Amino acid sequence: MRNKERYFSILQDYRAFAEKLSVENGKVKKTSSKGAHYARFLLYLTVLYEEIFQEDFGPLDSFVALKKIMVVENLKDFTTFNREEHNFYSATINCFSAYLTRKQTRKEEFADDRLNFNLASLTVADEILISEEIKEFQVDNLERPKKILYQKNESYPRSPHVSYLAKIRSNWSCELNRRHRTFISQADGKNFVEVHHLVPMAVQDYYQYTLDFTDNVITLCPNCHRLVHLGSYQERATAITKLLKDRETTYQQHGIEINQKLLLSFYGVV
To answer: Is 4Fe-4S given among the entry's keywords (predicted)?
Structure first.
């Protein structure tokens, strides 16, 4: 099979990731062969796309590939087809979404850390200046920006105005649990919180429009921020679902199509 040779290294990497993710989520034991099944079904999906649309699938290791596979998933007969294979195709797609996000997260996490550090360093004078600038600040439905290079690493830019406005809206509170208090920041005398893009910047390639808008930025105490990234399967699922429910209706206004299933896959909750 041509695609098997063409995508061999990516499929091997995806297979290892799928196995690891299944263990992390408590779905299988360490001796499972689920990763191999996922890799095989992912390969089948690329072939299925080519047969249906009579065109080359193209590179596999990209969010463009995920979009193509999701076109197949949305076809009329896919539900029956998927059910006959015990839902392995849909599970494979969700896992592939998590795989692509995890790889890109490594490149974007430095920008996230830098953003939170810069926001934490703002003095009262800095905040007054930004607050004045925000009055003239508009970011609705901006096209996806170009990546910028910082310390030999490319990532999408984050606007401090966008994230600072998110802090104002939440009144410097943890949006997962507003009773969570941290400490009073030396820089500005306010309760310390961190910002987090609910639809991760790591999946910006999936979308035409920017993900760096205030409705997509949530404020969390450091503990809840780590929970969203590193918590158990169930804790992350509960937290992410709650945060999306609180603002789900706002995304279409910014040209962003998102639902619970897709968002959870971005976080590796599949």
So the answer is: no
3-state secondary structure of 75: coil
Structural tokens at position 223: 């503990």
Distance between CA 10 and CA 46 in Å, rounded? 13
pLDDT in tens, 89-147: 999 999 999 999 999 998 899 999 999 999 999 999 999 999 888 876 665 568 899 99
Q: Tokens 């998927």 appear where?
A: 82
- Which amino acid belongs to residue 100? L
Q: pTM of the entire structure?
A: 0.91
- 97 in Cβ contact with 266 (< 8 Å): yes
Nearest to 213 by CA among 154, 155, 139: 139
Domain chopping of the chain, boundaries: 2-98, 105-266
Tokens 């062969």 found at: 33
Those residues with Cβ within 8 angstroms of residue 209's Cβ, 6 or more apart along the chain or in another chain: 141, 142, 143, 144, 254, 255, 256
> Structure tokens of 215?
């409705």
In sequence order, which residues have a C-beta less than 8 Å from that of residue 12 and are 6 or more positions away? 39
Query: Which one is predicted more confidently, 17 or 107?
Result: 17
Above pLDDT 70, what percent of the chain?
95
Is the CB of residue 23 less than 8 Å from the CB of residue 30?
A: yes
DSSP 8-state code for residue 143: B
* Residue 207 three-state SS: coil
Closest by CA position to 101, among listed 34, 43, 21, 159:
21
In sequence order, the 6+-apart residues with CB closer than 8 A to the CB of 148 are: 154, 155, 156, 157
